[in-house]
Design a protein that fits this description.
14 helices; 78% helix
Length: 288
């Protein structure tokens, strides 16, 4: 095992010191000490990648699962964050193509939103490499439950029919809002997609499926900016990222088809439960 592998898999801190659960401690030990070329680790990366790709495409916020896996493998939060981004990039490229072919992706509007979010993501990605890991983790622990609550808001009752065409509705303050969303997205991808989708739905008047399609494309636009920042700081484990991305793409394809059919209620519940559990861990790890 080389220097990189020792660094990535040599720190087992995700479960052991928090829950003191023998089973979880044993799992963390396995993940942190088993070499990457072991078929069991490859299988876990592919399966988790598939699940995250599927959920991220339908409802978002499933990147928290990848953070949990990578940190259990011994990665610090910045390395787990950067490694996750490559799978996100590839997955969103594929799902955006599916939505576009199905006629649900407004490319002109998506580019306008994407430019604003990309500008903010560069700032956010730089912040995550400069700020202490504890600040990043506590911020994630606080923000993710908020994102979970937003998933269950009946947006059709809260939104109003827009008089103008959605592209002409991109005023300066809406650009500013999407820049702020981009800062958060560069800081941590978890939950950023939900913010983008809600912003498009509430401020631009698109329906849920089209808002989700725009979300896919916007994430595709701003992720390379954030990914470049992580690359400059050597915060990407490429062997893990490449294997994980294969599962992301497979799950994303299935998720895109399910999203078009609006089959997302069960996924929202699953994401909410997962987010609450991981948020508790983030906060307890740094404050408890």
């Amino acid at each position: 095992m080389g220097v990189t592998e020792k660094y990535v898999f040599g720190h087992s801190y995700f479960f052991t010191n928090i829950y003191c659960n023998p089973m979880l401690a044993e799992l963390a030990q396995f993940l942190s000490t088993t070499p990457l070329n072991d078929w069991r680790i490859i299988t876990i990366l592919l399966c988790v990648g598939f699940i995250v790709g599927f959920i991220n495409t339908i409802a978002g916020m499933a990147s928290a699962i990848s953070y949990a896996l990578f940190m259990a493998m011994g990665m610090p939060v910045s390395l787990a964050n950067g490694t996750t981004r490559f799978g996100v990039l590839v997955q969103m490229g594929v799902t955006s193509s599916i939505f576009h072919k199905a006629g649900y992706l407004d490319m002109k509007l998506a580019f306008k939103v994407g430019i604003a979010v990309a500008a903010g993501s560069a700032i956010g990605a730089e912040l995550v490499t400069l700020l202490p890991s504890s600040i990043v983790e506590i911020s994630m622990g606080v923000m993710l439950p908020v994102m979970a609550v937003l998933l269950f808001i009946d947006k059709s009752k809260l939104s109003k029919k827009h008089e103008c065409d959605s592209i002409r509705c991109m005023s300066w303050w809406k650009y500013a809002v999407f820049v702020l969303v981009g800062i958060y997205g560069g800081f941590t991808h978890a939950g950023a997609g939900v913010l983008i989708m809600l912003g498009v739905f509430y401020m631009l008047g698109e329906d849920l499926v089209r808002s989700n399609a725009i979300r896919q494309f916007v994430v595709l636009v701003y992720t390379p900016v954030a990914l470049t920042i992580f690359m400059l700081h050597n915060d990407i484990n490429w062997p893990v990222a490449l294997i994980y991305a294969i599962g992301n793409v497979a799950g994303g394809i299935l998720g895109a088809k399910a999203s078009i059919k609006k089959g997302d209620k069960l996924i929202k519940v699953s994401v909410a439960v997962m987010v609450v559990l991981i948020s508790i861990w983030f906060i307890k790890r740094n404050i408890g």
